[in-house]
Amino acid sequence: MCASSCPATCSDLTAPLACASPCAEGCECNEGHVLSADRCVPVRKCGCDVDGRYYAIGESFWAAADCTVECQCEDGGEARCFNTSCPAGEACAVENGYRGCYPKRESLCVVGQNRVLQTFDGVSFPYPLEHSYTLLKTCPERSDFVEVDISQKKPGSAANGPRVVRIQVVGQEVKIGGASPSEIQVKMLPSGRPTLGREAVARPVI
């Protein structure tokens, strides 16, 4: 059958009314039913819309970036939330696009001046001198935000000169290298924001 290219869903019940695409061969939900994820359900059985994302009835999700608030979508489209935390041996992380509690795993990232010798998942590859590379970056909304980058090679710098390593944590940014391999620069950032801010007079050289 020629079905609507914009079927009604729990997130958008009126989608077919504004659909400008032609119909296409496919399936349609029975009258009085709409799509909830990949299933047809009665409209009264639609789930929850939370922060722009749809969750089916019975589906659980994390409402806090640090996995301290978990919610479950219940009948009537209401989300019931409660305080919790990851169990021992697990950490809050995003894997394959899904936030959750995952087993803690230790790994090592090793880089040289022009080559990633080993990523956290064991891959090795070169990267050009004119490119920068992000070694590690956590989600910006986390209270323990951290980012580690190795910068591109500056034009005109010595062939054997080191790249600058930038370490950014909440409250400060540290750069290692630059004019000399032993130079360390510290820049204070606006409180609680992982973005560049005013520079502090703190540039110890060792």
General shape: elongated
Which structural class do you get from the secondary structure elements?
mainly beta
What's the mean pLDDT score?
80
* Overall domain count: 3
Low-confidence stretches: 192-206
Which percent range fits the helix content? under 10%
Q: What is the H/E order?
A: EEEEEEEEEEEEEEEEEEE
* CA-CA gap between termini: 75 Å
How do the strands of the widest beta sheet line up side by side?
Answer: 15-16-17-18-19
Beta strand %? 35-45%
Element layout with pairings:
Blueprint: E1 2-3, E2 24-25, E3 33-36, E4 39-42, E5 48-50, E6 53-55, E7 60-62, E8 69-74, E9 78-83, E10 90-95, E11 98-103, E12 110-111, E13 115-118, E14 125-126, E15 133-137, E16 146-150, E17 165-169, E18 172-176, E19 184-188
Antiparallel strand pairs: 1-2, 3-4, 5-6, 7-8, 8-9, 10-11, 12-13, 13-14, 15-16, 16-17, 17-18, 18-19
Explain how this protein is built.
Strand 18 and strand 19 (184-188) form a beta hairpin. This protein starts with a strand and ends in an 18-residue tail after the last strand. It contains no helices and 19 strands. It has strands at 2-3, 24-25, 33-36, 39-42, 48-50, 53-55, 60-62, 69-74, 78-83, 90-95, 98-103, 110-111, 115-118, 125-126, 133-137, 146-150, 165-169, 172-176, 184-188. Helices cover 0% and strands 38% of the residues. The chain has 206 residues and is mainly β. It folds into three domains: 1-46, Laminin (Ribbon), CATH 2.10.25; 47-104; 110-188, no CATH class.
